[in-house]
Every structure is written in structure tokens, then in C-alpha cells.
């Protein structure tokens, strides 16, 4: 079979054109290097922009923090140094504050217990004398001198923990002083465990980690942050669902309930008996 010279020539021309097309479409050896350089420039530019913004934000935050500490020092000197000393070492009128941390300041000042109004068995809760910003400044200053327990994070104060576990932990660790209904109770020598009804979640947590008055300290080895969150959840649940069985009689337990029955219940029976006897005569 003979081959058509014209067809052969056309085929060779097509192959040559295809090779030329493939060659012309091949990437230049400098293209990869150019793309890499562009990528590095874009990445470096973005990193530089972020670094500059972060670097510019850090001095601002540091300045604000230092300003808060300075304001706290002024407030401390004017309101707290008389009892606790200018160096926080304590005096005969007040204990040392070294190592108590921001949490203790936020609790004591934020509940009005400090500044102390009168000497007594323990500091009572009273109207707060400082603004939230001033309390924050005082806490920042005390923590800057000697670190201690910090103000708790919001994630442990949301009241979304395990209420069942929290109620069990509360009965084991807290109910003997604060009452199983968290209504508070009397202690020795004129001291008392206050009611926990209406107390903010932050102050409950801070009390657990700082141990104010006669309360023991529950650090993270005793009760984990999650356990503390569960206890707060249980307390807030009880606060929203008070005494489902009727009048709580102050939630003071079986003593008050028994006294109520003896005085009013037995008294009513005696009065009724006297009335029936008088009528029969």
C-alpha cells in the first residue's frame, strides 16, 4: 500500500505545530521563583501589619493597667493604709494584705465589708462605698505588690454547670455553716455564716478561693474550678426555686420548724381544749 506524500507532509507539519504549541505553553523557569517571591511579600506584609497593630496596642493596654494601679495606690493610701499599713504588712488594727490577691479585694470591698466601719467579731456586709472602677483599681494595686488569687473568669460564673453535683458538694462542704438552704447560720463568739441568697456568682467564687472571716479556703486541689461552678449553679437554682413545700419559716431548719409547731400548733390545741371545756360547763 502506497503512502500519500501529501498526507505524510501534513502529518509531520501537525506534529511540529503541536510540539511548538506545547513548548510555547510551558511555564518559564522563573515563574515559580516569581510566585514564591510574591507569596513571601504578601505573607510578610500581613505579618508586619499584624505585628505593628499588636505592638501599638500593647503599650496602650500597659498604660491603662499602670494608670489603674496608680489610681489604686492613691485610693489605698487614703482609705486602707490606716489599718493595713502603707506597705500592706498589716498593723494591730488590720491584717497583712500581701498575697491576698485581687479576688480578696474584689470580695471584701465589693460587698461593702471593707473599709471596716466598727471593730467586731467579723466584718458585716454593708452598702458598697466605691465604684466598680475604683474597686478594680484597688484590686490591681494590691495584686501588683504581691500576687495572689485572681478574679474568676466569666466561664465559671455563668450558672450553667451541674446543679445536682453542685448541691451534693455544697451539702458536704458548706451546709454545716451556711445551712442546707444557704440561709446562713450562727457560729461561735458572735460570728456567723452569712446567707448566700442574692450574692453574686463572682463573690461566691471569690469567697471560696480566699476564705474570708472564718471560712476555709477551697483551692483548686479541694474543689476544682468546675466544682465551684457547679456549686454556684446549685445555689442559683435554689434561689430561683425557693421552698417548693410551702412557707420556708426563714429556712433555719428543724429547730425553727419545731419551735413553730410547739408554740402555735400545741398552743392552738391547748386553747381549743380550754374553749371546749368552758363551753361544756
TrEMBL record:
Chain sites annotated for binding heme c 2: 174, 177-178
EC number in record: 7.1.1.8
Main location: membrane
GO CC, alphabetical: plasma membrane
Keywords assigned: Cell membrane, Electron transport, Heme, Iron, Membrane, Metal-binding, Repeat, Respiratory chain, Translocase, Transmembrane, Transmembrane helix, Transport
Assembly and oligomerization: The cytochrome bc1 complex is composed of a cytochrome b (QcrB), the Rieske iron-sulfur protein (QcrA) and a diheme cytochrome c (QcrC) subunit.
Composition skew (Basic residues), residue ranges: 13-25
Name assigned to this protein: Cytochrome bc1 complex cytochrome c subunit
Entry comment on modification after translation: Binds 2 heme c groups covalently per subunit.
